[in-house]
Design brief:
homodimer, 409 residues, alpha/beta, Alpha-Beta Plaits, TIM Barrel, 8-stranded parallel beta sheet, 5-stranded mixed beta sheet, 18 helices, 19% strand, elongated, Ribulose-bisphosphate carboxylase large chain (chains A, B), RuBisCO_lsu_N_sf (chains A, B), ribulose-bisphosphate carboxylase activity (chains A, B), RuBisCO_lsu_C (chains A, B), RuBisCO_lsu_fd_N (chains A, B)
Amino acid sequence: MNPEDRAGFFARTQDLNLDDYLLLDYRFECSGDPELAAAHLCSEQSTAQWQRVGVDEDLRPQFAAKVLELEVIATQDEYSYPIPSTGNGRISVCQVRIAHPHGNFGPRLPNLLSAIVGEGPFFTPGIGLIRLEDIQFPETFLQHFQGPQFGIAGIRRALDAYDRPIFFGVIKPNIGLPPDAFADIAREAWLGGLDIAKDDEMLADPDWSPLAKRCASLGQVCREVAEQTGRPKWYLANITDEVDRLCDLHDVAVECGAGALLVNALPVGLSAVRMLRRHAQVPLMAHFPMIASFARLAHFGIHSRVLTRLQRLAGYDVVIMPGFGPRMMTPEQEVMDCVRACSEPMGPIKPCLPVPGGSDSAATLPGVYAKMGTVDFGFVPGRGVFAHPDGPHAGAASLLQAWAQIRGE
Amino acid sequence: MNPEDRAGFFARTQDLNLDDYLLLDYRFECSGDPELAAAHLCSEQSTAQWQRVGVDEDLRPQFAAKVLELEVIATQDEYSYPIPSTGNGRISVCQVRIAHPHGNFGPRLPNLLSAIVGEGPFFTPGIGLIRLEDIQFPETFLQHFQGPQFGIAGIRRALDAYDRPIFFGVIKPNIGLPPDAFADIAREAWLGGLDIAKDDEMLADPDWSPLAKRCASLGQVCREVAEQTGRPKWYLANITDEVDRLCDLHDVAVECGAGALLVNALPVGLSAVRMLRRHAQVPLMAHFPMIASFARLAHFGIHSRVLTRLQRLAGYDVVIMPGFGPRMMTPEQEVMDCVRACSEPMGPIKPCLPVPGGSDSAATLPGVYAKMGTVDFGFVPGRGVFAHPDGPHAGAASLLQAWAQIRGE
């Protein structure tokens, strides 16, 4: 790419109509000239070949992704992780902000993903390692999406739960119990004080616990406990399944009394979630399988905050994410980036409830609350409630006790 | 986990009915005892808590994932990539084969993914880095899937193309041309000898090139060229879009004369592909956006061969994958692993056509053919055809000339 060609992939912010562009922040490591690498990064994710042979045209003004800012933040002798065949010489570590014209594909999640984390960014000449760090959408793009139906405010109203976290519990044993036994332990935990007893993200619609039968059992018990305690209670059913079953399973689960539904975002795909959102009568909650496979490492893949934003955009009311503590192997900064992505301004899209999870119990509640600095979160122990030595009732009660203590009550 | 508990996550192959299990090969790096880490790896991906408090039961015989083989292949001072909070001490590099009971979730792709690359494997205590290296399915699982409808043999029959690779070309400029101009350059390439002129994986259904209009133009031209040359020709339309549009776009495209359809596997989700497969009247072709984000690194994420197997299982007739050469940053061994995954025995599931792609042209055909060692592959240049200095007709013809030369004709 000669210098003149390269210039077609650079622009000044003030020269663009930002309504037409997504803003993408990548960190990349390259061998060779960083400006050339950044130009290729734009070219590969948009107008790879911007003119026909023998035709005097340039498709880039409208269709090219364009570098707005490029900074070399470090140089080093080697790539941060060993990778195959990436050229020689010193490595430049760069941050780049790119304006990507969303009119190239329109307000469609699969096409968005194909452009921003597809072949373009991950196979750009000269760039051996790259991570999509963040994304911003203009309102012209956001207005095509529904986002969360209920959001934090809607969930609080429905659960009549204010000025405190929402207390979830993952019913355990998660795999192997028949519906009635499963309902019995959920009953105890609801009676102990849980707002929401939930299916594990791996418990779906197997023959030893068919979703319809499980929802019938748990829906019935949930109604009984709500009546008995005078408190709203939700059973959160996991309807993660093949995408052409999602709407039917929604109907079955809601009919039986599920108050909210869990759908594993990446395994079904964000687009399937968006489809379900159009149909949904109850809040949708995301779980995070697969995300770590591309979000764990600091210098390669996709920052989990990007996935949080996309889950919110797809219509989730609640996003469960890897939380604090060594077991979840997620830096505190990253957890907080994801938490903030749930509530940061996003045009007409409502905030969703963040649920940082992982090996929690009454003992970890004060620390999580301190880090969150707000009551707007969900707390989701599993074994911390259901393996409590005195049983699930005591496990759930221990959360409320811990909260009362935090509040000095 | 005490030694007795640990034993519940180990088994001997001869003691299991392998019809009931998927076989999963992981490579992992752990601090601490490798046997304990492997037991946790099984526990976390299946029966995390295998008994109720106060109940004398053990759900593991039926529901636990179980270690069949464990080998420590190296020890080292540090993890291969720096990661947050992973304990102290020497790191063991391990290979493990796990039998995972598929009855935990049934023959459903989203639930399969949630188990094998979900929270379990990526958040196992003690395991800082892990990669799913391979998967094998028993026929009892495979029999629930359709797999490819046409497969390699069906594609050859329809294209009347035997004893040679199938010649694809990615129409370029990929983004920005209106349908009629796009059809004009496709015409040249078909006349030059391409079997299949295809949309770029980023070209979908935008207002400047609506799919229906594009398919009408290219379908018409494709029929004209087929008649003129007496050779079957396909237009491969990219219908990647929101999942609830896939079947409708299939109908529109096929009605207009698209001979095959491209769908980006991970962006729409494998389950949506499986849904489309049930509906499809023409071959389905996969492209690879997103896969590199978890498959690039040797010691973390998911080996791309696993994705090849899953794409075949979901029903793709053709799988485009990162091919040979430095630009694609994929070791030759890995390309060949993916190629083999297209044709290795898989019960009732037909072979699919591998298309290793990336910056190809007539000049790279001999090398690719030599590496493949078979004619059963697709060859997919983009700029190698459509940026040929003498135009797309000459670009396409150059492929056939290169092939004739290889065959000494």
